[in-house]
Amino acid sequence: MSGESEINGPTPTSGAIRQIAIVLFPDVEELDAVGPWEVLSFWTRNFPEDGWGVYCVSAEGGPVTCAKGLTVYAHHSMADMPAAEVLLHPGGMGTRPQLKDPGHLEWVRRQRASVPLMTSVCTGSLVFAAAGLLAGRPATTHWASLDLLAELDPTIEVRAEDRFVDDGDVITSSGVSAGIDMALHLVSRLASVERARQVRRGIQYDPRPPV
To answer: Could you tell me the CATH number of the domain that includes residue 112?
Structure first.
C-alpha cells in the first residue's frame, strides 16, 4: 500500500479547501492532539491561500475529557464530519479499549478506504496496527509501546529510533511531542518547506529541554 493515494502539494485550486481531521476520544493524550492542532491551525488560519482547513472529530461530537483531565470540544461527530484528505489519530490510554473495539476499528478501516493520508501520534499507531493498516510497513509509536506494536502485527517493521515514519499514505510518529514534529512535516509535505519554517517560527517551536 506504500505510496497509494499519496497526497502532496501543489496548492489546491482557488476556493478549494482540503480538510485535516484530528480524532478525539475519552482519555486521549492532550498533547498528542493539541500539539498538532497548534501547528496545523496556525498554518491554516495564517496562510488560507494554501487551501487547507483543520477540525476535530469525535464519536458523538461535543466535549471530550482527555487523559490528564482537560476537556476539549470536537467540531463534528463521526456521523457528520466533512470529507477529510488527512486523518490524524492521537494516542493515550484511551487507545487501549479501541484495540478491541470492533466499531472503532471498522471506522478506522473505512477512513483508510476514503482518506488519502492517515497519520498517527504516539499509541495511535497501535490502533492502526489493530485495524490492519500497518501490515508489512515501517512504523513507530511511544517507546513504551514498541513491543506491543510488534505483537499486534509481527509484519510491521518497527522503527524504534525514529521521531516519525513517512511511508507515503501512512505516517506514524512516536510519543507525545513527536506529534509536533510530524505536524510540521505535514505542512512541509502539503505546502512547502518554507511554509513549515514560517509556521515553526510563528509558534516559536524551538525546543531546548532544560534537563
So the answer is: 3.40.50.880
Bridging pattern class, strands 164-166 and 170-173: antiparallel
Q: Which pLDDT tens digit goes with each residue over 172-182?
A: 999 999 999 99
For 151, the domain range is 18-202
Strand partners, 157: 138
The reply to whether the predicted model has a pTM over 0.90 is yes
130-141 pLDDT, tens digit each: 999 999 999 999
Whether 188 is covered by a domain: the verdict is yes
The number of folded domains in the chain is 1
* Amino acid residing at 146: L
Residues whose CB falls within 8 Å of the CB of residue 21, separated by 6 or more in sequence, listed in order: 54, 55, 56, 57, 81, 82, 84, 86, 87, 88, 115
Quick one: cell of 80? 457528520
Catalytic residue numbers read 122
For the sheet containing 86-89, what is the strand order?
76-77, 52-58, 18-23, 86-89, 117-121, 170-173, 164-166
Instruction: Tell me, yes or no, whether 127 lies in a domain.
Output: yes
